[in-house]
Amino acid sequence: MSSNKIFIITGEKGQGKTGLLIEVLEILKKQEIKLTGFYAKGFWENNKRSAFDLVNIKTGKSIPLCKSKETKNWDKFFNYYFNPEALKAGNQILGDENIINSDLIVVDEIGKLDISGKIWHDAISKITSKKKHNLLLVVRKAFVEDVVNYWGMENVTIFEVGKDDAKSIDEKIIAKISVL
Which residue, 14, 34, 48, 134, is the most exposed by fewest CB within 10 angstroms? Predict the structure, then answer.
C-alpha cells in the first residue's frame, strides 16, 4: 500500500497561513495539480477576526463557516458560532467521491476542535487511515505536534509562514507527490 504525504503550513494566529496557502494553491493549479478541499477566508472587524467563509477550492463557491457573533441555530465552539450547513458542506468536499481523483487534498485549518472529535475530525480520520491520499493542511503552530501525533501522521513536511515562500513550497510538494 502506498503511503500518503502530509504537508503542513503553520504559523501563529493571524500570521498569514491562509494567505500563503492561497498563493501555493494558485501555483499548484497552474502546474495542473488536481486539488480538492477548502480554505477558510477570514474577515476582520475592529482589528479582530469576526468571521470565516468556507471556500471550495474546485468550484470557488463559498458559504459562511463561522462568526464571532451569536447566530441562531449555529453551534458554538470556543469563541465562534459555526454554521451546520458549512460543516456539512466541508465534510462532503472531503468525502470519498470528491477526493478519489485528487493529487492533493487541502484543509484549512485543523486544530484543537478536530482532535477533540469535532468539525473535520471524522473526514480527516477517514482520509489518514487509508494512507493513500496526499494532504496539505493548515495548522496553527501550537497544535502541529498534537495533530501529527493524534492521527499518527508520517511523511510530514512542515512549512512555516515567514520562513517558506509559495514557490519553494510548491516545488517541494510537486517533487514529493510525483504527479508530473
Answer: 48
